[in-house]
Amino acid sequence: MAMNDSVNILNSAYLAVEYIDSFLPDNPLQQPFKNAWNYMLDNYTKFQIATWGSLIVHEVSYFLLCVPGFIFQFIPYMQKYKIQQDKPETWEKQWKCFKTLLFNHFFIQLPLICGTYYFTEYFNIPYEWEEMPRWYVLVAQCFGCAVIEDAWHYFLHRLLHHKRIYKYIHKVHHEFV
Questions:
Q1: CA triplet 67, 97, 117: central angle to 5 degrees?
Q2: Which of 4, 26, 51, 160 could lock onto 170 through a cystine, CB 3.0 to 4.6 A?
Q3: Is 18 inside a domain boundary?
Q4: Are 124 and 137 contained in the same domain?
């Protein structure tokens, strides 16, 4: 009975989103994205897309999202919002942090990203444009992933503060402001 009610709720939500979607204008960027996606599929293998494409998207988005925070820390007006007031930023510390980040991204995260291809193959995740989920499904999946990732970071970070492993693993994290 409960399963049937949840299915009815999901069907109702799906119909509501479809109804609202019917009033929205067509996305003018959809065709250029479709052309670029199909070009990518025609010219690169799935392994290249999953591995190197994921790496490029990860690095570009990570560092672009970090730029405002990096700039703000050197603006005197923004210093009042700083959490660790007693630790001033220096270019030397920033350079050391950047080198540590690059090491972590390419020697820890890249091997994990290499598993993306095998993950997509194992779970039969399609690459074709026509098989892509609708925009609202992608939004819901991204939101769900953000919640899971945030919870994962929170609990893992708490675990890394345990007295038995802090000085061996996690102390490096607190070296930077």
A1: 75
A2: 160
A3: no
A4: no
Same domain, 140 and 172: yes
Chain-centroid distance, C-alpha 106: 16
The burial class, CB within 10 Å (0-12 / 13-18 / 19+), for 83 is: exposed
pLDDT of residue 132: 85
Task: Name the residue range of residue 171's domain.
Answer: 133-176
C-alpha 155/C-alpha 151 separation (Å) is 6
Residues with Cβ within 8 Å of 96's Cβ and at least 6 positions away in sequence, in order, are 176
> Do 144 and 163 sit in the same domain of this protein?
yes
Nearest-10 Cα torsion for 161, 167, 173, 175: 130
Closest by CA position to 17, among listed 120, 137, 126, 110: 137
Instruction: Give domain status of residue 3, yes or no.
Output: no
Mean pLDDT of the chain: 85
Cα 131 → chain centroid? 22
**Which pTM was predicted?**
0.68
Same domain flag for 48 and 105: yes
Q: How many domains does the chain have?
A: 2
Q: Which two tokens stand for residue 38?
A: 């199909």
